[in-house]
Amino acid sequence: MRRRGIPWLFLLLAVGPVVLGLGYALLYSLGLVGLLGRGFTLEHWGAVVRSADFWGALGLSTFIAVVTITLSTALALAAVLRWQEHTLRGLRTYAFYLPLALPATVMAFLIFQWLGDAGLLSRLAFALGLTNSTTDFPSLINDRWGTGIIVAHTLMATPFLTIFLANLYRSERVREVSQVAATLGLPPGRVARRLVIPLLLRQGRSTLLLYAVFVFSSYEIPLLLGSQSPAMLSVLTIRKLQRYNLADIPQAYVISVLYALLLVAVLLLWLGWSRYRRNTALHEA
Amino acid sequence: MKPRLGSALLFLLALFPFAFLLLLSVSQRWVYPDLLPAGWSLRPWGDALGRGDDLGVALLTSLLIALTVGAVGTLLGFATARRLSLLPRGRRWLRLAYLPYVFAPVLLAACLQFYFLRLGLSGRVAGVLLAQLFIVYPYAVILASSFYTSRLRDMEDLAGTLGATPVEVARTVSWYLLRGPLAIVFFQSFLISWFEYGLTLLIGVGKVATLPLKVFQFVNEANIFYAAMAASLLVVPPVLLLWINKRLLFVTR
Predict the structure, then answer these.
(1) In whole angstroms, what is the distance from residue B199 CA to residue A109 CA?
(2) The pLDDT value given to residue B3
């Protein structure tokens, strides 16, 4: 006998916390609950929308997510194009799987030790006579462009995306399709540009988008490697929440709600666009 | 460059972070601009793990939380995946499981702090367990759903039709077909909990010290050698899992 009711446990544990959390954040941000709750007000929303910190954080988070996903996808594609269906063979298997064992906390610590003013790279530069002191070494961490954050995320994302794209390469039978195209006279360079890369990117676009969201909302890496201003969105939110200035707390909740709205909008647009593309393709077929 | 040499170099590059962490954890005095530390010693490892009040406790706390959250998340995840597979719009329900990830775990924790304070769970292991379950459980449901196929359901139905009791169906059919996926989901759930930082920090308010929190604490104290030690301990379970079977860590369905 199959039960077809509402999955209450699922709603309670997966959906409930998000609804409760967002509900509280929304009420707090509108002045309806909390220590500073003096009745309905849009004052905190106005303060966030007018603040340079918020727009700086939004811009930096978007910039880092886009640059990271572009760089790591390019590197992963290069690896898959180079080794094709043999990408995950022999020593390369471990080369791509081992970095998955490094959590964000550890990666942040490693980049801190490698790229810091007195880090490994700076010491190497000194040993090679390229610098005379720590101040000669360029700031690669805690800088306004998030260089260290991008490096850390790229080092984490590239092996993951390589494994993902290599699996796609196999499951989508890209080698066979490429062979057909080559037989029909398409030169190898164009097979890669016109066929393999578009095919892999189209099949993997949802995962790439989800990974970009993951980078956009990351916390541990920018906490250690990011600058004070602009900070990434998660860091800015938690910082406002933990400040001694109570007036900052409602603003932290405003940013949380705005963040959720923004991502829901992006995902809905994505779903709509994917559906439109699918329908168009079906119509053309 | 010969292909094998390229692969060997890539492998050595992948090993470098682990070697660096281990060497840093047994280092003593590493002053700029020295390329290598002034000395090496295993004593800090003995001190840190033997004292019983610092890194050792963090290791045990992390293990306790990750094992519990991993086990509970896996069991509930499979039970829910089975339930969703029976629903006409199960796939649509499943989309909701992505919510905690879209809404970053650390922001989720920030918004849930009030409730944990009210329930007296803030700053307690029980609170961290529950909060981590909120992100591990949806992931376990998503992953378990990819294994809960119509073929499996048909096999269960067939056994039932042939007279097997629900317990016998679970023991002979479900367990036989799902023991591999159960291990995969458990290991993945364990790792999410094992690596979790932001949510544990906010709900545990720093009182529930796990290994990721220790890494940050030592970095903030400028004690890079202890930070490297905590980081080394943090990467041991995933590396062991890789050693056992690389397929357990990454599954594409």
Answers:
(1) 19
(2) 62
